[in-house]
Amino acid sequence: MAGLVIGCLAVQLSLASLLLCSSASTAQHTLGTGSSLSVEDRSRPFLVSPDGTFSCGFIQAGDDGDNAFSFSVWFTAARDGAVVWTANPDAPVNGRGSTISFRHDGELALADTNGTTVWASRTGGGGRGLTVSLRDTGNLVIEDPSTGRAVWQSFDRPTDTLLPSQRFTKDTKLVAGYFSLYYDNDNVLRMLYDGPEIASIYWPLPGVSIFDFGRTNYNSSRIAILDDAGVFRSSDRLQAQASDMGVGVKRRLTIEQDGNLRIYSLNASTGGWAVTWAALSQPCQAHGLCGKNGLCVYLPSLRCSCPPGYEMIDRRDWRKGCQPMFSVGNCSQPAAPERFKSVVVPQTDFYGYDLMFNGSSITFELCRNQCLSDCQCVAFSYRFDGVGRCFTKGRLFNGYTSANFPGNIYLKVPIDFDESSPLVSARSAAGLTCNPNVSIVTVPAAVYGMAPRNSGKWTYLFVFAGVLGVLDLLFIATGWWFLSSKQSIPSSLEAGYRRVMTSQFRRFTYRELKDATANFKEELGRGGSGVVYRGVLDGGKVVAVKRLAVDVTMQGDEEFWAEMTVLGRINHMNLVRIWGFCSERKHKLLVYEYVENQSLDRHLFDTAEGGGGGGGISTTTLAWKDRYKIALGTARGLAYLHHECLEWVIHCDMKPENILLTRDFDAKIADFGLAKLSKRDGGAGMELTHMRGTSGYMAPEWALNVPINAKVDVYSFGIVLLEIVVGSRVADQRTEAGERLQLPQIAQALRHVLDSGDVRSLVDARLQGQFNPRQAMEMVRISLACMEDRNSRPTMDDIAKALTAFDDEDEHPAYRS
């Protein structure tokens, strides 16, 4: 019987190989302009490499049930497809009506079901006679057959994978989620975790000289390559070898969602992959895997948990980490070490955020007292390695538990904290859910076949936690029933239930905000969505309070609260943070963080140019480095709204007045999400009750009575970007005859600048030549692209990546007046 099964399997594999070869032989390797493929025909590839190793076309981008597809290149014979390049990793298209087209202008373009171009090769047009082909190397190439010159190739724009013979340079990155492989400004190939709250390098191991790893920063070429024999070499002297080193094996180098960089080798007979090299021998060395306060442990699969006294912030996503179930006070109170004690977590450490480090020998008691007496200290690490080193911690990130770690972490907790409480133990145990977007399984240890000896006790704890969860659900369901019923209930009880429902941020009363603003006395600014006032809360926190205009507040309380839950989940360093809201009948107010350095218009435009918003206009010319920093930050903020939010958010009024600046000139976008509070319809775009935005920044489609999509923000950003370069309002530009310049004339002028390569005449004269010409030229190019027809405009994600590529340039202006 076993022999029969094996025989049948061999026949099936042979048949599959035959069909694969047949398909590869009929598929095309090269296409001319005018070719296209619909997502409904995704069973056939768009192109196949001549030797059949690689295919490209539509492939599912999410889980099996997701109706989301990407245009990708993958290994044909691999069981799981093994995607090696994706055109639109952050903007999947619909499974119906989407197309990939090689247009007559020589541009390869991916269109969603509504006709919106979500990705394009940007080959520059004028491409009649060009061809697109998939090479045996896996490189997707657009070239001019008459000269053999490649005008575009996927090898120049990797996503998360590097293939043999593909050059990795200072201008490229491999990215997977929050993790990236790149050349740092010290010329060393590194891996970085760049999360919502922190960013930290974790490979090579921080705190150790790169020379100890046999690498060097005396490396001007900054280039790396994976060769056909399975050796990955970098010009900083990194050399990694696949364990099956030798030619004839299909390989790939991939950075993955767990932050590790691995070489994979393909088993030609089974179609499976084997890891033949990994950058991190201990998976928990990657930073940020379990979020703030979270602990990573490898048992033997990667697993996250919370320390004693901490609980998960979001049971669907470990990246948000854990939060304490207690309070240790703050530095506004006198230090009182007798109110605290320490709880040990053995063989555990949190990397970084040291308040103090004693390199010389120090006793455990002194180390503990230093932490308990420091209002900023939340824990301390003590290492029993013969030296007795003490590290006090101001924050807890990048936590890990390892049997090889020669020390413990000691958490600072209130003196009455009971770590043996079943509730504390149960809520601090490993999470019971996993995030489908992260390859971290977070389930109880028993699932790994590692149940503790006292399994009865753990069973009791999990059953106890389950009962608590059921009670929580019953409580919330009862609360919703009370809120939705028509019967009259006391206002205090109603408010209590609503606090449960709106726990993401604070709900204020109208009286509180009226008192905080001194009866709305100090106006900070006003716009179409309402008026903003300066306020001071009871604790002394300065905030900005916006009274929403009537057209934004016509909806009922329940709909308003629903919208608030969406805005409350939005958090990005380049967006003004919303701290809370008020909803009392006709009074609808939002409470924002206060950004002290006013808005961009007050720094960019002088009085003569109408630079808006009242007094306090800066008399100092905004430096070029600050301008570029503001442009990049604004692009990243909009990219987050368009591509990373749980729900689609369009700003609809992007202008310098809505870009606020911190003291360090970091950009923070204000007034986002207010279009979402307006009455709108679903579908391919937004159906707004009236035109939104400001004259001079509004996209042409506003006047065409068509559904609005995110490309209106792209157009507005293009105008703002040009204004950052020229230092004046685009709408105020005039011809020599005094007539206002129209959009086609502005676009023509920008094309002339790009063709001539001379951007000096366009840049703000107040800078006196002190600017980076390459950055300025890139900003002009992007601005022009943003003014195109909306289907041809880039996405904000494309724009953010393009600006980032020029961000690390040295500031050595080539032009001086």
From TrEMBL:
<feature type="domain" description="Protein kinase">
    <location>
        <begin position="518"/>
        <end position="815"/>
    </location>
</feature>
<dbReference type="InterPro" id="IPR003609">
    <property type="entry name" value="Pan_app"/>
</dbReference>
<dbReference type="InterPro" id="IPR001480">
    <property type="entry name" value="Bulb-type_lectin_dom"/>
</dbReference>
<keyword id="KW-0732">Signal</keyword>
<keyword id="KW-0547">Nucleotide-binding</keyword>
<keyword id="KW-0067">ATP-binding</keyword>
<feature type="binding site">
    <location>
        <position position="546"/>
    </location>
    <ligand>
        <name>ATP</name>
    </ligand>
</feature>
<keyword id="KW-1015">Disulfide bond</keyword>
<keyword id="KW-0325">Glycoprotein</keyword>
<keyword id="KW-0418">Kinase</keyword>
<protein>
    <recommendedName>
        <fullName>Receptor-like serine/threonine-protein kinase</fullName>
        <ecNumber>2.7.11.1</ecNumber>
    </recommendedName>
</protein>
<keyword id="KW-0245">EGF-like domain</keyword>
<keyword id="KW-0675">Receptor</keyword>
<dbReference type="InterPro" id="IPR011009">
    <property type="entry name" value="Kinase-like_dom_sf"/>
</dbReference>
<dbReference type="InterPro" id="IPR017441">
    <property type="entry name" value="Protein_kinase_ATP_BS"/>
</dbReference>
<dbReference type="InterPro" id="IPR024171">
    <property type="entry name" value="SRK-like_kinase"/>
</dbReference>
<feature type="domain" description="Bulb-type lectin">
    <location>
        <begin position="22"/>
        <end position="155"/>
    </location>
</feature>
<dbReference type="GO" id="GO:0004674">
    <property type="term" value="F:protein serine/threonine kinase activity"/>
</dbReference>
<keyword id="KW-0723">Serine/threonine-protein kinase</keyword>
<feature type="transmembrane region" description="Helical">
    <location>
        <begin position="458"/>
        <end position="483"/>
    </location>
</feature>
<dbReference type="InterPro" id="IPR036426">
    <property type="entry name" value="Bulb-type_lectin_dom_sf"/>
</dbReference>
<dbReference type="InterPro" id="IPR000742">
    <property type="entry name" value="EGF"/>
</dbReference>
<dbReference type="InterPro" id="IPR008271">
    <property type="entry name" value="Ser/Thr_kinase_AS"/>
</dbReference>
<comment type="similarity">
    <text>Belongs to the protein kinase superfamily. Ser/Thr protein kinase family.</text>
</comment>
<dbReference type="InterPro" id="IPR000858">
    <property type="entry name" value="S_locus_glycoprot_dom"/>
</dbReference>
<dbReference type="GO" id="GO:0106310">
    <property type="term" value="F:protein serine kinase activity"/>
</dbReference>
<feature type="signal peptide">
    <location>
        <begin position="1"/>
        <end position="16"/>
    </location>
</feature>
<dbReference type="GO" id="GO:0048544">
    <property type="term" value="P:recognition of pollen"/>
</dbReference>
<keyword id="KW-0812">Transmembrane</keyword>
<dbReference type="InterPro" id="IPR000719">
    <property type="entry name" value="Prot_kinase_dom"/>
</dbReference>
<dbReference type="GO" id="GO:0005524">
    <property type="term" value="F:ATP binding"/>
</dbReference>
<keyword id="KW-0808">Transferase</keyword>
<keyword id="KW-0472">Membrane</keyword>
<dbReference type="Pfam" id="PF00069">
    <property type="entry name" value="Pkinase"/>
</dbReference>
<feature type="domain" description="Apple">
    <location>
        <begin position="331"/>
        <end position="414"/>
    </location>
</feature>
<keyword id="KW-1133">Transmembrane helix</keyword>
<dbReference type="Pfam" id="PF08276">
    <property type="entry name" value="PAN_2"/>
</dbReference>
<dbReference type="Pfam" id="PF01453">
    <property type="entry name" value="B_lectin"/>
</dbReference>
<dbReference type="Pfam" id="PF00954">
    <property type="entry name" value="S_locus_glycop"/>
</dbReference>
<dbReference type="GO" id="GO:0051707">
    <property type="term" value="P:response to other organism"/>
</dbReference>
<dbReference type="GO" id="GO:0016020">
    <property type="term" value="C:membrane"/>
</dbReference>
